[in-house]
Design brief:
With 451 residues, the chain is of the alpha/beta class. Helices cover 43% and strands 13% of the residues. The protein has 3 domains: 2-198, NAD(P)-binding Rossmann-like Domain (Rossmann fold, 3-Layer(aba) Sandwich); 208-290, N-(1-d-carboxylethyl)-l-norvaline Dehydrogenase, domain 2; 294-445, Rossmann fold (3-Layer(aba) Sandwich), CATH 3.40.50.720. Strands 3-2-1-4-5-6 form a 6-stranded parallel β-sheet, with helices on both faces. β5, α6 (127-137) and β6 form a beta-alpha-beta unit. α13 crosses α15 (336-346). The chain is elongated and about 75 Å long.
């Protein structure tokens, strides 16, 4: 089959490359000429493990091409996917659908054959209805069907998620749309990946409901972590204990500095706005959004406490390890590191940071932070080290070297990578998330032991 993917960002490029790897003829379309030029040169616009190799192999095989011309790109396509951004709209928090609607209009004006138009972008309930109206108003004489096919890709594991999905959700209103989508996903269907066919509006809501539920799990365990610190419990054991219940499951129950990224923040907010529009309040999701936003700033205060409090922290230096919202991506959107660094710099703290992939994206978002090209350069002369993102590179740090380089042996582990007992034995003041029984010491009482 021929597939056109309109939008060559994270979702469009990963999806297009994977479809090509299945054997489909795929053209990725983007108005950004520089992005298309870089793709022709084999340069990826995003960091995703394995993506460069996947794209390169399918380009070489002739199954994957790139263009800036939508009219040329969609010619002869059986399925035309809309995979453009839907960021939160300034002012009211609704999803900004202007890119989706502009693409729909251009598709209608240039449709040269019967085709299925698929919204791959994350869109609110009813967007497919409006896309259908726009296509009808374009005056096209060709048969078309508008289908919803939300993506469920995790950054850092997107290729595996696409090729081995938990489920494929397809919202279609007619047999034409359903049959074309069966052919599109036939390679996965033969591997017994479950396909759920449903109505278009239901499909659109599934995506938002899934992300809101996962965001709720993260926020719930973070609140349990705060309670653990108060009552003298261990949140990691709490997480294991409840995650062993197969009705709950262990995923998304790792306590930390809060969720970020391209999906959860904007999708929970968009779901709230949709619920308001339909006079159907979603109080749980509303609380999740509020708690998560306050948590990020609270993590900055946690680092300040390790420095002896906000007053004592002024003029000190913190080494920040990890900037992206999660490892194995360069995505800085709504990363907790932004709020943490802002809380520190507002208190007069100097921040030096290192991230394996995200520093170029972080620079305009964190202009007050000094970016360095090695974690130990960041640590040199630091009064405290904080781990904000759990990159593998930070899981086996040389603590003897850190003690030699840092001004004080203080580690604030916001991802619970290390164990308090081991860190105390190494002579560190160590604080983490949700461990109230560890006797980690009170920084404000001058617990600054060195071996």
């Amino acid at each position: 089959m021929k597939i056109a993917m309109v939008g060559s960002g994270y979702v469009g490029l990963v999806s297009g490359a994977c479809f090509a790897d299945f054997g489909h003829d795929v053209v990725c379309i983007d108005k950004d000429q520089s992005k298309i030029d870089r793709l022709h040169d084999g340069i990826m616009p995003i960091y995703e493990p394995g993506l460069a190799e996947l794209v390169g192999g399918n380009v070489k095989a002739g199954r994957l091409t790139f263009t800036t011309s939508l009219a040329e790109g969609i010619k002869g396509a059986d399925a035309i996917f809309i995979a453009v951004g839907t960021p939160s709209r300034r002012g009211d928090g609704h999803a900004d659908l202007s890119f989706v609607y502009a693409v729909a209009k251009e598709i209608g004006e240039n449709l040269a054959n019967d085709a299925v138009v698929v919204t791959k972008s994350t869109v609110p309930v009813g967007t497919g209805d409006e896309v259908e109206r726009i296509l009808k108003d374009s005056g096209t004489s060709h048969t078309f069907s508008v289908v919803s096919n939300p993506e469920f890709l995790r950054e850092g594991a997107a290729i595996d998620d696409f090729k081995r999905p938990d489920r494929i959700v397809i919202g279609a209103e007619d047999d034409f749309g359903r049959e074309i989508m069966r052919e599109v996903y036939r390679p996965l269907y033969l591997n017994e990946s479950p396909i759920l066919f449903t109505g278009r509006r239901t499909s659109e809501l599934i995506k938002y409901a899934a992300n809101a539920f996962l965001a709720t799990k993260i926020t719930f365990i973070n609140e349990m972590a705060d309670l653990c610190e108060k009552v003298g419990a261990n949140v990691q054991d709490v997480s294991r204990g409840i995650g062993m219940d197969n009705r709950i499951g262990p995923k998304f129950l790792n306590a930390g500095p809060g969720y970020g990224g391209s999906c959860f923040p904007k999708d929970t907010l968009a779901l709230l706005k949709t619920a308001e529009d339909y006079d159907s309040p979603t109080r749980i999701v509303e609380a999740v959004v509020q708690v998560n936003e306050s948590r990020k700033r609270a993590m900055g205060r946690k680092v300040l406490d390790a420095l002896g409090g906000a007053d004592a922290a002024r003029g000190k230096k913190v080494a920040m390890l990890g900037l992206t919202f999660k490892p194995n991506t360069d995505d800085m959107r709504d990363s907790p590191a932004i709020a943490v660094s802002q809380a520190l710099t507002d208190a007069g703290v100097e921040v030096a940071a290192y991230d394996p992939e995200g520093m170029e994206q972080a620079k305009p978002l964190m202009p007050e932070v000094t970016m360095v090209d090695d974690p130990y350069k960041a640590i040199e002369g630091a009064d405290a080290v904080t781990i904000v993102t759990e990159w593998d590179a930070f899981r086996a740090l040389d603590f003897d070297r850190i003690k030699d380089l840092a001004k004080e042996p203080v580690l604030v582990d916001l991802r619970n990578i290390y164990r308090a007992k081991e860190m105390r034995e190494k002579g560190f003041y160590y604080t983490s998330i949700g461990h109230g029984e560890t006797g980690q010491g009170d920084r404000r009482k001058g617990d600054r032991r060195r071996n």
